[in-house]
Amino acid sequence: MKVTLISPDLQSTHFKFTPKEVKSFWFAKLTLPHLAALTPEDVEVRLIDEAVEPINFDEPTDLVGITVNTYLAMRAYEISAEFRKRGVPVVLGGIHPSLYPQEAMRHADTIAIGEAENIWTPIVRDAQKGRLQPKYASQEYPSLQDLPLPRRDLLKKGAYLTTNTIQTSRGCPYHCDFCSVTDFFGHTYRCRPIPEVLREIETLNLSRPLVFVDDNIIGKPQYALELFQRMKQYKVRWGSQCSINLAKHPELMKAARESGCVAMFIGLETIDQHNLNDVHKGVNHANAYYDAIKRIHDHGISINAGMILGMDHDDESVFERTLEFLEKTRIEYATFHILTPVPGTVLHQRMEQDGRILHRDWSKYNGGYTVFRPKLMSPEALEEGYYWTYHQFYSMRSILKRVFDPGIEMFYKLALNLAYKRMIRRFPHHDLPEMAQVLQTMNGEVHAIPEVNKKGLIPYTIEVTQQTMRNVGETMDRFLRIRVHQHHRLQALFVELTGVLNGISARRLRERIAYALQRTQWDIILNFEHVQFATARGLQSFLPPYHPAVRIKCLHVPRHFREHLERFHQGIEFIDQADDLLPV
Ligand code: SF4
């Protein structure tokens, strides 16, 4: 009997790696070699990874097994149809058929639900007897003890950067709403015995890098610590995936680095704590990111940040803010994803209930398309911003800013960034969406006082004493900070002003407001609550000539500021306190 195991791949989209790209910086997936190792010895096995070789549908075979992720489901169904047309029975397995079995059953002779260890041999034996059942479901989460050595020898030679992919654990201790890991592996976190992992490492070509394909290699920190400490002897370079709480374990970071860890993929997901709360990513704390990233970097470990765009608190400023954060923290690599409600996840259920799913073309569920209705921007703006962010992050300007740091590792980081840059080049080019450009132009810090000059300053709080005024030189801001949010319900730009509004900063603010008035019909709400000082000239000149079609409201303006404003700006509306003006 001959079994053909297939890993489908994207067909001619700009997301598909070329064979050259796979060879220069990608690794072989472990699923097929592992399935081949589970196949009874008397059965001949052939592996086809569509990322590196085409499928010959006419090559004789007795059974086809296809591993299916959601975004490749359509392609898997096409492949299945071709083989079934030729009378070859097809088994579909993996995450998508397991979490969405009804659909998969319509495209195969049988489906395999759950992990393969307990069901693959019965499937092969039943196929030999011509008695395939329509469905095989694993009744338990298998132990990871005594797993056979994956059949890496069956992978296409010379096609990958490395075939040293290896797994130490399955599952993740967390359960984020958008992730299918815990839904597929159950609320379990299972580890292989460390001696077995080490024995497997010893069979590999250690001159090539090693990739641990765990979903979270530090799910059990004590296990990971022992593994890393015992790996030091091999002097190999390796990378994996883990959660940001790695930064809480100095000993673990040290052991990881000493055992050869050069980079970790870490799902930071979003820089907004409200978003993290929404998707129940409790392991991440946005306000601790700077510190956590610095600690990991200080241990010599690079970060490939997984970033999701389009969550419910993301307006069109998210692209620029995310880029700014990644550059400030000098994140070495990043992969961006448009939020994707993968079937079987909590997020998918929620979006389905809320009627926000736009379509079910699974080939668009790869993180590069908007398949749901975003809350604070249009689906088109989300895609444009996604491409803009990718191009900006892998621009030479950004690469140098993030990875320029004399040292041997810099060349490695630079080379990998340039490889990404070459790949990103074929992505569509987009400007920032229009509103994002407005936000980008308005946000920032403008100079207010070239030198300490207290003349004419009017404090926000009139009770400020003469003594305080004499001391302001030491304490006052010399800038006006302008932070703008979109207030969607009111269709208004909510402008927070902080610092000093004098003639110099007012001129810059006026230019920005004028730009916004030209580019958008939205109202403008200026919040004066954090204006530390103003001058009469600043208060008189910060607005462009009044535009009757647009309403300008000023919030939290003290009476002594208001006198100046009323004298020079007719038609401004003043608001003292209004809860519904809080930015969203
Ligand atoms: S921490 Fe990562 S792997 Fe674990 S559930 Fe969340 S997204 Fe998935």
Automatic annotation (TrEMBL):
Pfam family membership, one: Radical_SAM
InterPro entries: BchE-like, Cobalamin-bd, DUF4070, Elp3/MiaA/NifB-like_rSAM, Methyltransferase_Class_B, rSAM, rSAM_horseshoe, rSAM_sf
Sequence ranges assigned to domain B12-binding in this UniProt record: 1-134
Cofactor: [4Fe-4S] cluster
Record-level GO cellular component terms: cytosol
Chain ranges of the Radical SAM core domain: 158-380
Gene Ontology MF terms: 4 iron, 4 sulfur cluster binding; catalytic activity; cobalamin binding; metal ion binding
Domain of life: Bacteria
Keyword list, A-Z: Iron, Iron-sulfur, Metal-binding, Methyltransferase, S-adenosyl-L-methionine, Transferase
Name of this protein: Radical SAM domain protein
Organism: Candidatus Moduliflexus flocculans
Lineage: Bacteria, Candidatus Moduliflexota, Candidatus Moduliflexia, Candidatus Moduliflexales, Candidatus Moduliflexaceae
